[in-house]
Specification:
By secondary structure, the protein is of the alpha/beta class. It contains 6 helices and 7 strands. The strands form 2 sheets. The chain has a 5-stranded parallel beta sheet with strand order 3-2-1-4-5, with helices on both faces. The longest helix has 14 residues. It is elongated, with a radius of gyration of 20 Å.
Length: about 190
């Protein structure tokens, strides 16, 4: 049976430099997705022309830079993460190949074989964030799971997280003792039958 071998991480995009190559509908989708979770993400979007909504996002997010130009390999300097979503497969492949040579993680929209990572479904309730992946197989399933979790996770989950954080700060003992005490308190979160 095939298994999802992706490793989930949560990136601090305000500390990283992201490049998006492509300013059309898919570029808008990728930028919107990044900003939904990371409104202060450092992103430069490079394209010959920009979707109007990308311009609006850039006006409302000072950390977004729009560069009206064709992609050049020097644009990969000082980047951590790259997304290419032009309607030109040759440009996208070139971005991927050049990114790989520089050890940059890269995502080529709608081309799973040219992706080092996927942008999955995300549920956010205050400090709680859940990422959902279908291994690039079914974005629609990820969307439905996101909607499910948004419905079942209580709105006041953030208050519980903040209270547990305050309690954790008061605990004495070594790491093992603290983990044991936190596990006892949070045990009620499990669904018992």
């Amino acid at each position: 049976m095939e298994q999802n071998e992706l490793y989930p991480i949560f990136l601090k995009l305000h500390n990283l430099n992201v490049l998006i190559v492509g300013g059309g509908n898919v570029g808008l989708e990728k930028l919107s997705f990044l900003l939904k979770s990371s409104p202060n993400a450092n992103v430069e979007v490079v394209a010959a022309d920009f979707h109007l909504e990308i311009k609006v996002l850039a006006e409302n997010h000072p950390s977004i830079k729009l560069t009206e130009a064709k992609f050049k390999k020097k644009m990969l300097k000082k980047r951590h993460m790259v997304i290419a979503c032009t309607d030109d497969l040759e440009v996208n492949k070139r971005v991927y190949d050049l990114s790989r040579k520089r050890y940059l993680i890269c995502n080529i929209a709608d081309t799973p074989d040219l992706c080092d990572y996927y942008l999955g479904g995300i549920v956010t309730k205050g400090n709680v964030k859940i990422a959902i992946s279908t291994n690039g197989k079914s974005p629609t399933t990820a969307k439905r799971l996101r909607e499910f979790f948004e419905d079942v996770i209580p709105e006041d989950i953030n208050k519980m997280v903040e209270n547990l954080n305050e309690y954790r700060k008061t605990l004495k003992g070594d790491f093992e003792d603290k983990v044991k005490k936190m596990n006892e308190i949070t045990d009620s979160l499990k669904n018992k039958e």
